[in-house]
Amino acid sequence: MREVIAAPLAGLDLRQHYGHHQSPAVRAGGLIFCSGMLPVDPQTGERRHGTLTTEAHVVLGNLKLLLESAGSSLDRLVQVHALIYDSIEYDVLNRVYRQYVANGPPARTVWTAQIEAGFKIQLDVVAAA
Amino acid sequence: MTEKLQRSAIEPKNPLLNASRNSNLPHVPGIRIGDYIFLSGMVPVDPQTGERSHGPIAEQVRVTLSNMRHMLESAGSSLERVLRVHVVLADISHMAEMDRVYREFFPVDPPARTAWSMQLRFGNGCEIECVALAG
Amino acid sequence: MRAKREVIPLPVRAPDTASGSGQPLSMAVRGGDFLFVSGLTAVDLKSGERMQGTTASETRQILTNLKQLLDAAGSSLDKVVKVNVLLHSMLEERNMNEVYARFFPDQPPARTVCGARLPDGVKVIVECTALA
After folding, report:
1. Helix, strand, or coil here: B88?
2. Which of A122, B24, B64, C53 could serve as C57's disulfide partner, Cβ 3.0–4.6 Å?
3. Residues of chain A with pLDDT under 50
4. Which of A79, A38, A72 is nearest to A58 (CA)?
5. Do residues C41 and C58 make contact, with C-beta atoms less than 8 angstroms apart?
6. B91 SS3 class
7. Rg over CA atoms, chain A
8. For A120-129, C38-47, C91-100, which range has the lowest pLDDT when averaged over its residues?
9. Measured between alpha carbons, how far is A66 from A98 in angstroms, rounded to an integer?
10. CATH 3.30.1330.40 at C5-131, yes or no
């Protein structure tokens, strides 16, 4: 069965704030598929543009909130696609990311992509339920 | 209540292909969870030396998929059990060449695939990841 | 029990690549609980002919095709759990989203959208994972 995971805080409801036609996450088959997480304020939904470092902290903090509200956690991440706006930030990404996946990191692929609203990072993740 | 699935990290039998460990990166070569194996993106690495393996795109794709085969087999799976592949090329004009080699690795009932181009690190011509059924 | 992998036979013609013999992929593969659908571009499913257009028209063609593919595979649009959309330009996000919303009216799947270099002047690629 397929179950939509609602945003645990209003700011993470991107459909409401930005019209992005997506649910924050969907649980099915023992896995949780999350929509690409962006650097938005989890309370207000406002864009939190900054450096790759500050944006990465916001994104990972948001994912922690979302996954924990769904009974999962960052420790149960299975796969991550880390989208960054320029591959030059690879080491910076790692420095922040490492802090959040200390208890056994998941599989990961880093993609250099054009991200909406000029954000520097977006994380697309799958976690175990 | 259904029991929670447990994840486990997979590693290649050939330690030279363990980029996560060798370069001290915050990921693992792959994760097994329930019926599935999710692999981290793989780039062209010479399995004899562990060094980057550049050259014509055909060779890069060949060595990458060969290493992917090794990774899956190390985990008790195989290329035949791959469900979906993502192929990222540094140069979109390499699609036809990539296809030509790719076909050799998935000759029958190939997996689902999405292929596109993005900027890649370190001069790599391709980066390939997949989801497969566990063994 | 070992999970089974199955390529879903579909009554469609995959688009040809430059090599002329069809792309080396299956449009949909079932494994375990899920159906993995290849990245779809705007084509006529019967003829394999490219249906080039605007981002909006290509999105509409793709999602119309996706509905057909999923139904033929015993799944459906409302069983889709995750979608990845690749756009040739993020400026087109809104145009894509407007069309997309019509195909997933309730409880839409999770989704990630980003911009990348797409093959052959294609404006949008949509891939998804659905419950089988």
Report:
1. strand
2. C53
3. none
4. A38
5. yes
6. coil
7. 14
8. C38-47
9. 19
10. yes
Task: pLDDT band for C80, please (50, 70, 90 cuts).
Answer: very high
Q: Yes or no: say if C12 and C26 are a contact pair by the CB < 8 Å rule.
A: no
Radius of gyration of chain C from its Cα atoms, rounded to whole angstroms: 14
Cβ-based contacts under 8 A for chains A and C: 81
Short-list A82, A71, A89, CA closest to A106? A82
Residue B58 sits at the chain C interface (C-beta within 8 Å):
no
Contact C81 A33 (CB under 8 A): yes
Please report the domains of chain B, with CATH numbers, ordered by start residue: 7-133 (3.30.1330.40)
Q: Tokens 């069965």 map to which residue?
A: A1
Give me the residue spans of the domains in chain A: 2-128
- In what order do the strands lie in the sheet containing C80-87? C5-7, C28-31, C34-40, C124-131, C80-87, C110-115
Please tell me what DSSP assigns to residue C34.
Answer: E
So what's the pLDDT on residue C21?
52
Q: How far is C77 from chain A (nearest CA, A)?
A: 12
ipTM summary value: 0.97
Average pLDDT over residues C25-48: 94
Contact B7 A126 (CB under 8 A): no
Please state, in angstroms and rounded to a whole number, the distance separating the CA atoms of residues C11 and C8. Answer: 10
Residues B78/B70, Cβ–Cβ less than 8 Å: no
Q: Is it true that domain A2-128 has CATH number 3.30.1330.40?
A: yes
Tokens standing for C69?
Answer: 């593919």
pTM: 0.96
Question: What angle, 0 to 180 degrees and rounded to 10, lies between the N-to-C axes of helices A52-69 and A90-100?
Answer: 30
Q: Which pair of tokens denotes residue A75?
A: 């420790």
